[in-house]
Specification:
Length: 337
């Protein structure tokens, strides 16, 4: 097997929770294969003329040590010196995040960047779902308070209010027609009408759980059910949801079949979609998680499958062939077909 040299663009090592972090499993898998592993934060990316660089540190984990203990000294390396760059920074999806994708766009054709920086820049995790109206419940994106109130009052029962750029269930609220707190909630979330939010018909099946399905190269490869804790409406592990094993329903497979070709065509190798009942709610493309939970419940080692994929992609890139019709660097990944 050819030895790869990998760079992980991620949150600081000392913030990693090894019990549930998917980036951590990818790093350990690469190390187990004898590949080179380095890491940096988005703030440590730069450009010198047309060439992107990273102020990064080598990483070697030893059993029993804290993640940060595996980091070596930082030094400057061009992205061209890496075979694969994993973009694994957690949201918020802000201008700093977007700027990092511009720098990753400068990676040369021989360096594979996944997920593709142009695609994660273009396809926001919550707004991406709007491109598939047949898969989602009635949804409004607005910062107009009157429009949001009118939408909520037109729904048969409850509505969900959430920021378009949040993660982990943060800022997600539930209201309903006639709720005297509705307008106050909208004022808070929109910053008095300065920021867009999502208003969405509530899906009552959330009480039975929020299904996370991991797709690799557009195909469903593992799933878990996240059941909200008592007194909470959020099916997020960060919010205290418990995790259970589950199967894919026919509707789940229909959703995956619809999304798969789009994800594959746009270089979105590792994606986690969220499904409540029969409805798609999010398409997580920045730094999806769930690999460790899937392994504990089913035994599937999806980090090994992902590593096989980047090895194959790197072989293609080194040969000079295009990767599934995607631009290899410096260009937008195009529009969803």
């Amino acid at each position: 097997m050819r030895r790869l040299d990998l760079l992980f663009v991620m949150d600081p090592l000392h913030t990693i929770s090894v019990a549930g972090d998917s980036t951590w499993t990818l790093m350990l898998e690469a190390q187990a294969r004898g590949w080179g592993v380095s890491w940096c934060t988005p703030a440590q990316l730069s450009a010198r003329g047309p060439e992107a660089w990273a102020r990064c540190a080598p990483f070697v984990h030893r059993p029993g040590a804290a993640p940060a203990d595996g980091s070596g000294p930082f030094g400057d390396r061009p992205l061209s010196s890496f075979d694969v760059v994993w973009m694994r920074k957690d949201p918020p999806f802000d201008m700093d995040y977007i700027f990092a994708t511009y720098l990753l766009d400068l990676a040369p054709p021989t360096t594979v960047v996944r997920n593709h920086p142009g695609s994660i820049r273009s396809f926001n995790e919550k707004l991406f779902t709007l491109r598939f109206p047949e898969l989602i419940v009635p949804t409004l994106l607005t910062r107009d308070l009157r429009e949001a109130v009118a939408f909520a009052e037109a729904q048969p029962d409850r509505v969900v209010l959430k920021p378009w750029d949040g993660n982990g269930g943060r800022g997600v609220l539930v209201s309903r027609k006639g709720d005297p707190n509705l307008r106050s909630m909208l004022e808070l979330l929109t910053g008095e009408g300065r920021h867009h939010i999502i208003v969405q018909r509530h899906i009552p099946e959330i009480t039975r759980g929020d299904k996370r399905i991991v797709l690799i190269d557009g195909a469903p490869r593992g799933q878990i059910l996240r059941v909200p804790g008592a007194g909470d409406h959020r099916g997020n592990m960060h919010a205290g949801a418990t995790v259970e094993a589950c199967d894919l329903s026919p509707r789940d497979r229909q959703i995956c079949d619809r999304l798969g070709p789009v994800l594959r065509a746009h270089g979105l190798l590792f994606v986690g979609i969220d499904v409540i009942g029969d409805w798609l709610t999010e398409i997580n493309v920045t730094s999806p998680t769930g690999l460790q939970e899937i392994h504990r419940l089913s035994g599937a080692s999806l980090w090994a499958e992902l590593s096989d994929h980047v090895l194959a992609l790197s072989d293609v890139a080194r040969s000079g062939q295009p990767l599934s019709g995607l631009p290899l660097s410096g260009q937008s990944a195009g529009s969803v077909q």
